[in-house]
């Protein structure tokens, strides 16, 4: 089987072709970063128009790279939500049109399911596994029991961790997007700030919180600025301190989730991390220690399959198609769509 996948739920326009032998035949991502940078964040209207301007040519290029025509496809997959609704509509309508013209099944997939199943594309991991899903819009721990079978153990009660990285970068004057900028700045730290809070650490549930950490960081930055001491050195030390606190909190919550998941699911096959923040090398390192201590493999897809892409959407659609699942052509894109 071979499918075309389309992703357009945020600020990446993406098209990919993936087959059931887990081969990525094309994986093109066009970032809109430069269009949103002047605004310091993603502007939904700008995003939707940009998806519309670029998606058809990107699909053409992906099909050319894969060396196939639309008639060879077994299905056309698009992100059906959650996300910025203008962009989701552009991607879903495009997929429906291709599917209708070429009489192929259309599959609308949940963007989070794309992230959740990526490790099956890259590492062929078997169900059930524990998933830490960490992106700009989401922060959750789930037991992935099967395609469409996700048991949530915990989630953030305020900001997603990627959002926290983005806000921290803004506070520190590190620019946008924040995650990679914080990680880069942290590498130059000479004395990381160690006394920022570790939200939720030690709690019996598996929830997350990042707003307190963000506030603590803001107070430190404000105080240093007022004292005229906010220089490049302070910036790096605070970036490292913030990253360390965020990772400590993620690590503690994940350790708790391993314990909780094993009570009901003793046969966990792996600890999987997915979503944009999974591109963070320090986080991967920490998670590999947690996995080793729990006698689990850590599976972390390569960075460019962690941040938003269409290969993960194509793959999730393929998994559904293999189970006989498809979506009606009157599927309505969903701005909110819990997993
Ligand atoms: O999955 P993704 O590409 O889009 C969403 O679905 O949200 O995740 C984007 C998020 C952003 O908040 C970005 O700052 C964060 O992932 N991110 C990182 C890193 N690379 C991307 N956070 C920390 N360290 C990184 N290296
Ligand atoms: Zn995402």
UniProtKB/TrEMBL annotation:
Kindly list the positions annotated as binding substrate: 133-137, 166, 179, 183, 280
The protein's location, in the record's own words, is: Cytoplasm
- Enzyme class, UniProt record, top EC level: transferase
GO molecular function (one): tRNA N(6)-L-threonylcarbamoyladenine synthase activity
Q: Where does Fe cation bind?
A: 111, 115, 308
Among HAMAP family, the record links this protein to: TsaD
- Its name, as the record gives it, is tRNA N6-adenosine threonylcarbamoyltransferase
Q: Which domain of life is it from?
A: Bacteria
Instruction: Supply the PANTHER family for this chain.
Output: TRNA N6-ADENOSINE THREONYLCARBAMOYLTRANSFERASE, TRNA N6-ADENOSINE THREONYLCARBAMOYLTRANSFERASE, MITOCHONDRIAL
Q: Which InterPro entries does the entry mention?
A: ATPase_NBD, Gcp-like_dom, KAE1/TsaD, Peptidase_M22_CS, TsaD
The record's PROSITE patterns line, in alphabetical order, gives:
GLYCOPROTEASE
Q: What is its main location?
A: cytoplasm
């Amino acid at each position: 089987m071979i499918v075309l996948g389309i992703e357009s739920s945020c600020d990446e326009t993406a098209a990919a072709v993936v087959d059931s032998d887990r081969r990525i035949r094309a994986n093109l991502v066009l970032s809109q970063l430069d269009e949103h940078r002047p605004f310091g964040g993603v502007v939904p209207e700008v995003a939707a128009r940009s998806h519309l301007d670029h998606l058809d040519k990107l699909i053409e290029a992906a099909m050319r790279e894969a060396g196939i025509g639309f008639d060879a496809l077994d299905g056309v997959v698009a992100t059906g939500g959650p996300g910025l609704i203008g962009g989701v509509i552009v991607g879903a309508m495009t997929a429906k049109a291709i599917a209708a013209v070429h009489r192929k099944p259309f599959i609308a997939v949940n963007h989070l399911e794309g992230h959740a199943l990526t490790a099956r594309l890259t590492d062929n991991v078997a169900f059930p596994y524990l998933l830490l899903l960490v992106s700009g819009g989401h922060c959750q721990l789930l037991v992935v029991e099967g395609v469409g079978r996700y048991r949530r153990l915990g989630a953030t009660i305020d900001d997603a961790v990627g959002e926290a990285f983005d806000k921290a970068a803004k506070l520190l004057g590190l620019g946008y997007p924040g995650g990679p900028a914080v990680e880069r700045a942290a590498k130059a730290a000479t004395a990381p700030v160690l006394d920022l809070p570790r939200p939720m650490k030690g709690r019996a549930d598996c929830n997350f919180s990042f707003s307190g950490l963000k506030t603590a960081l803001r107070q430190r930055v404000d105080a240093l600025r007022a004292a005229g001491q906010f220089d490049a050195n302070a910036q790096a030390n605070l970036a490292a301190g913030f990253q360390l606190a965020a990772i400590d909190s993620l690590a503690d919550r994940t350790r708790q989730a391993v314990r909780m998941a094993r009570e009901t699911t003793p046969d966990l096959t792996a600890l999987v991390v997915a979503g944009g923040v999974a591109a963070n090398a320090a986080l991967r390192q920490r998670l590999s220690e947690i996995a080793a201590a729990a006698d689990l493999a850590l599976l972390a897809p390569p960075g460019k399959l962690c941040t938003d892409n269409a290969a993960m959407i194509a793959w999730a659609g393929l998994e559904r198609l293999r189970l006989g699942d498809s979506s009606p052509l009157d599927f309505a894109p969903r701005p909110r769509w819990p997993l």
